[in-house]
Amino acid sequence: MSLYQTVSVDLGDRSYPIIIGRGLLGGNFDLADYVRGTDCFVVSNETVAPLYLDKLRPNLAGRNVASFSLPDGESFKSVATMQTILDELLASGANRDTTVIALGGGVVGDIAGFAAACFMRGVAFIQVPTTLLAQVDSSVGGKTGVNHEKGKNLIGAFHQPRLVLIDTDTLDTLPVREFRAGLAEVIKYGAICDPAFFTWLESNMSGLLEKDPKLLAYAIQRSCELKAEVVAGDERETGRRAILNFGHTFGHAIERCLGYGEWLHGEAVAAGMIMAADLSGITAADLARLKGLVGAAGLPTEAPAIAGDRWLEAMGMDKKIRQKQLRFVLLRALGEAYLSADYDGARLEALIGAGA
């Protein structure tokens, strides 16, 4: 049995573990205790399935396993694609005892989770994330959904998994650009709530880019611990959980304005974090540190050219809006985030105007 670390997401009767280790696929972690019935339905995509579907099957020994592969890419994260998953579930004879398993990155996890939430009003769900971004962020916390032409993740549901199984060996096949995009979410955790982790990232970014196993394992574990702590205190994002969206108001706008998939989610969030930090009015030193770390990860430090009115239109569908008032996750300092509608309007105009 491979050694692994466990991080718990404490949500009462919806609690679940995050299992983190190397070599967990291939039968080295038995999923039997987390599969509700005898039938499993694995949702993957055309890139990941050839690499890891057969490696997952031994973890499901004794279960009936059906599978379906989606086209690969953010542009397929849609209601139409989810409909195909529901159709395939029905065609396979799935019922309320079927466990849906997401094998892939954030798009696969979000859309498979949403299908699991909707199918027969909710069936069991397991996350097996294979990208860094999914491992440290989207697979944890129960947010599922699809995009709409008006904005990102506007259609969805909260549906917690029974387990998140993270085999870090899957990162060996992850393209460099995708890996760097995942580092944006890792940096985010240090920026919003753990200044010591931010400092650790500054000291170890070169090793992370080389995928040093020990450094990578710690970065994933610490990111999951921080997200689990926030989610446990605010599962439905009625308060503090919103800080996990640091950089996302700008980032989602970038994705929508450029077209989903033109910039990767992590790339858009990276530039969005710097814009949000600038809007916050933090010290020049803290802003420089954030820019320096984002740049060291090989991520964009400036937003693409987008007209100011398009920025406002795209941000107008942000899910943090209340009473038609735009709200941002801001920083008092590195490691201290908060949600507020009280921001400098002139500074915002300058920021989005600079992209025009």
Question: How would you summarize what this structure contains?
Answer:
This protein is an alpha/beta fold and 356 residues long.
What do you see in this structure?
This protein has 356 residues and is of the alpha/beta class. The protein folds into two domains: 4-173, Rossmann fold (3-Layer(aba) Sandwich), CATH 3.40.50.1970; 176-353, Up-down Bundle (Dehydroquinate synthase-like, alpha domain). Helices cover 43% and strands 19% of the residues. The strands form three sheets. Strands 1-2-9-6-5-3-4 form a seven-stranded mixed beta sheet, sandwiched between helices. It has a two-stranded antiparallel ribbon with strand order 7-8. Strand 1 (4-9) and strand 2 (16-21) form a beta hairpin. Helix 4 packs parallel to helix 5, helix 4 runs parallel beside helix 7 (213-233) and helix 6 (195-209) packs antiparallel against helix 7 (213-233). The longest helix has 21 residues, at 213-233. The chain is globular, with a radius of gyration of 20 Å. The N and C termini lie far apart (55 Å). The model has no long low-confidence stretch (mean pLDDT 95).
